[in-house]
Design brief:
The complex is a heterodimer of chains A (about 675) and B (about 170). Chain A is mainly alpha-helical. Chain A is built from 25 helices and six strands. Chain B has helices spanning about 10-35, 40-45, 75-85; strands at about 50, 60-65, 70-75, 110, 125, 130-135, 140, 145-150, 160-165, 170. The longest helix of chain B is centred in the first third of the chain and has 26 residues, at about 10-35. Classes of the chains: A mainly alpha (about 675), B alpha+beta (about 170).
């Protein structure tokens, strides 16, 4: 996009076409012969990675929209329908949900890289500002996308974030009502968020085009922070930068695939598998990890309006960085003081993220205020002052000279530390909890780990426990009888499925138009035990038995530091079944001095104050097993929890199988790209 | 590459490109596959049973199987005689009536009620042949569901079905 194109088509048709629309020449000059500094390190690959992630989000998003229903009564179930019935639906949704996290992860690396190497300085101020605008648009798109599954976290995120605007004096309330289209977050809100969530990515694409345009006018910055002076300082974009970026993208995709295939729920919050309930806020609401630092800033200011102003200022201040930094040296490599303050700033951002995941209590409040102060001080005091008092080290005269000196190992190690720190932040949010309740013991599950599969016999026993005990109160609405015979499940035969289905009475209109009961068929859903919630409460004595379809993913417990970091690599995804087992075995007499409210039992595994509405459902010998397994509460609890895990994640085996294939492919591809890159770059330097 | 001999470098480039191309092509599988009928749609396409007892002679009813309208016609003697009297080789899509019903159940005609022209639903008991008339482009079918006049190229198709008893059929 800079200068005139040197592209000379040989083919007659291309010549004819190029005279009328010089688009091939544009691509040729922008992405083929475009001179790129030869000293770029791998941190420069994140621009390409971000473009790739934007593409992933748009493609998977368009496909998901083909199956999603933006209506408060259907949104949650339509997402589950995607997970269960749509061909590869689970893959597409996990790619999209995990993709959002990886998109932000790459964006943060990209932004910090720009800060470290002074990429915002003249002549790249507009380039930087466009980047900040993209980031703000990403935040809006990410937030609205999070609302769409219409789980508890979706609903309360929508409520809290829209309420930020209520802090505006005088017009705040009318603005919030206007955003909602009602008296509270509801169907109109969901539908407009859906519309905007579809629009914003294309707006982002537009700004990305401007961002790339501005980049190609000013040229890329580089680790030395000196502009290229001759052809010796640069290499053509293709193949050099292309293959280098492709190699690093493949490596990035290995991490991405690890999460998608082996721990897709690690980055999601269990509460969002509970359908939105406008009558009850979850005990601990936290945003997705990528918003946590800003959430901490919001909460650290004790005044509502000032808190909101601080939140928005903390993002908007990025726009002014090119002028707040008064130093004329770009790269931190040659700025000994700035380099230290940069890392302090990174640490403060990660700390803010950690505080954002914690309840605003005790010493967290003081330190999150301190970090908030430092966050702003970095921009308003440190950056302007450093330029005046710092004595930079001598800057090389050219890129070639900088390459010969090669002092970048330290920076590379430090940036790696940044990546690890950010990764730590990724894990912290979904495990926020006020009081550290005793973690239930981890069980051995056949379906744990990258190679885990369900134990068919265990699932069949678990179904028997559900059938004989749980289903008297708990529905299993999202499952059909046919699921019991599908691959990767309990493995009932077709005849067994028909027989099980026929046991159930399903309400259906008969030929005379009357609602009558008929025996169930394989395609029918499990009929609920109660007509409606009110009847359920009536029968069970007040408590509403939750639907069991996704319960194993909707429950979990605080894993705490440093466990949640190990969980990322193990990978540990069985917090739900472990919790359910603990509940089923956790009934005890209340400790002395504790009086139980009417209609509740004491369960040590239930979150404090440990009063649970469900009566102890299991006793030894209650369910007859035919395969000789012990007929104990212990065994029942494990079996039914395994069954519930399958009910919540029926395609777990297909996911892990495909994951292995994708992993092998990516490893082979990365190795090939690595050697290709070495060959291509062999003649440079 | 100046030399005509393939070098090790060529091999590396071709291998990398090929693996990348395979990966890109494989990525299309889920993206295209997701538009095929999903598991719940396929499960809902299971066979249905229809009780024929309430259908009077001369009456045509419509049921749905796999989202398709299925006509079940209880034909009169006159209608059967009429369609069997037509010389088969004069028809646009020659097919004897006997092949369109099940032996011993001559009075029961079961059809997929979708015009073979462009997919509209023909109206029962209309047109010049005591059969079906498609309001979209004027195709006319006789009491055997065979095309007699108009742009449709073929007879109305017969769905898979069997008699469970004399008065009950299973479609699908």
């Amino acid at each position: 996009m800079s200068g005139t194109s040197t592209y000379q088509p040989r083919n007659a048709f291309l010549k004819w076409f190029e005279r009328r629309l010089p688009v091939i020449g544009l691509v040729h000059s922008s992405f083929v012969v475009y001179p790129t500094p030869k000293n770029l390190n791998y941190w420069w690959a994140f621009g390409g990675i971000l473009a790739f992630m934007l593409g992933v989000q748009i493609v998977t998003g368009i496909v998901l929209v083909m199956h999603y229903t933006p209506h408060v009564d259907m949104a949650f179930n339509s997402v589950e329908y995607i997970m269960r019935d749509v061909n590869y639906g689970w893959l597409l949704r996990y790619l999209h949900a995990t993709g959002a996290s990886f998109f932000f992860f790459a964006a943060y690396i990209h932004i910090f890289r720009g800060m470290y190497y002074g990429s915002y300085k003249a002549p790249r101020e507009v380039l930087w500002i466009l980047g900040v605008i993209i980031y703000i648009l990403m935040m809006a798109a990410g937030f609205m996308g999070y609302v769409l599954p219409w789980g508890q976290m979706s609903y309360w995120a929508a409520t809290v974030i829209t309420n930020l605007f209520s802090a505006i004096p005088l017009v705040g309330e009318p603005i919030v009502t206007w955003l909602w289209g009602g008296y509270a977050v509801g169907n109109p809100t969901l539908q407009r968020f859906f519309s905007l969530h579809y629009l914003l990515p294309f707006v982002i694409v537009g700004v990305v085009v401007l961002h790339v345009w501005a980049l190609h006018v000013a040229g890329q910055n580089n680790p030395a922070g000196v502009e290229p002076q001759s052809d010796k300082d640069t290499v053509p974009f293709t193949p050099h930068a292309t293959v280098k970026d492709a190699f690093f993208l493949a490596v990035f995709c290995i991490a991405f695939a690890w999460f998608v295939f082996y721990e897709p729920n690690y980055l999601l919050h269990p509460d969002n598998y509970i359908p939105a309930n406008p009558g009850q806020t979850p005990a601990h609401i936290v945003p997705e990890w990528y918003y946590l630092p800003f959430y901490a800033i919001l909460r650290s200011i004790p005044n509502k309006l000032m808190g909101v102003i601080a939140l928005f200022s903390s993002i908007v201040i990025l726009l002014f960085v090119p002028w707040l930094d008064t130093s004329r040296v770009k790269s931190a490599t040659y700025r000994p003081l700035y380099k230290q303050f940069f890392w302090i700033f990174v640490a403060v951002c990660i700390l803010l993220g950690w505080f954002g995941s914690k309840p605003p209590e005790g010493w967290y409040v003081f330190f999150s205020r301190l970090c908030t102060f430092y966050y702003f001080a970095h921009f308003l005091i440190v950056l302007p002052l450093l330029g005046l008092i710092e004595t930079p080290r001598p800057v090389p005269h050219s890129i070639s000279e900088a390459v010969l000196k090669k002092g970048k190992a330290v920076a590379a190690v430090a940036m790696l530390a940044l990546a690890v720190g950010l990764a730590g932040l990724v894990g912290s949010p979904s495990r926020a909890s006020a009081e550290e309740s005793e973690a239930p013991p981890a069980n051995k599950w056949s379906f744990a780990g990258p190679f885990g599969t369900y134990d068919r016999a265990q699932l069949q026993r678990g179904f028997k426990v559900y059938h004989d005990v749980c289903q008297n109160c708990h529905s299993l609405k999202l499952l059909s009888f046919r699921n019991l015979g599908e691959p990767g499940g309990p493995g009932f035969s077709e005849a067994q499925v028909e027989a099980i289905a026929a046991e159930y009475k399903v309400k259906d209109a008969n030929d005379q138009g009357e609602i009558a009961e008929r025996p169930g068929r394989a395609a029918d859903h499990f009929p609920p035990p109660f007509e409606n919630d009110a009847q359920a409460r009536q029968v069970t004595g007040g408590a509403l038995p939750p639907d069991m379809s996704v319960l194993a993913k909707a429950r979990g417990y605080e894993r705490g530091f440093p466990k949640f970091i190990f969980d990322m690599f193990v990978p540990y995804q069985e917090a739900g079944p472990d919790y359910i087992v603990a509940i089923l075995k956790g009934y005890t007499n209340p400790p002395a001095g504790v009086s139980l409210p009417a209609g509740t039992q004491y369960n040590k595994a239930f979150p404090a104050p440990h009063f649970i509405g469900m009566r102890n459902p299991l006793t030894d010998g209650q369910v007859d097993y035919t395969d000789g397994s012990p007929q104990t509460v212990d065994q029942y609890a494990k079996d039914v929890s395994a069954f519930m895990m399958w009910a919540a994640e029926p395609h777990l085996e297909a996911r892990k199988r495909l994951g292995m294939q994708v992993m092998i492919f990516l490893l082979v591809f990365s190795v090939l790209l690595y050697f290709t890159k070495k060959k291509v770059w062999a003649s440079v330097h | 590459m100046d030399s005509a001999e393939p070098t090790r470098r060529d091999f590396l480039y071709i291998a990398t490109g090929a693996v990348g191309a395979i990966g890109a092509a494989t990525t299309l599988v889920p993206l295209i596959g997701q538009m095929n009928p999903d598991a719940s749609t396929i499960a809902a396409g299971a066979p249905i049973e229809v009780d024929l007892a309430p259908i009077a002679e001369g009456q045509v009813i419509k049921v749905f199987w796999r989202s398709k309208p299925i006509y079940i016609s209880h034909r009169t003697k006159k209608e059967i005689d009429e369609v069997r009297a037509v010389p088969v080789n004069t028809l646009p899509d020659p097919e004897p009536d006997q092949k369109r019903v099940q032996a011993g159940h001559d009075q029961w005609l079961v059809l997929i009620g979708i015009c073979t022209h462009l997919g509209c639903i023909p109206l029962a008991n209309q047109g010049d042949y005591d059969g079906w008339f498609c309001p979209c482009h004027g195709s006319q079918y006789d009491a055997s569901g065979r095309i007699r006049r108009g742009p449709a190229p073929a007879n109305l198709p017969i769905p898979p079905y069997k008699f469970v008893s004399d008065t009950k059929i299973q479609i699908g």
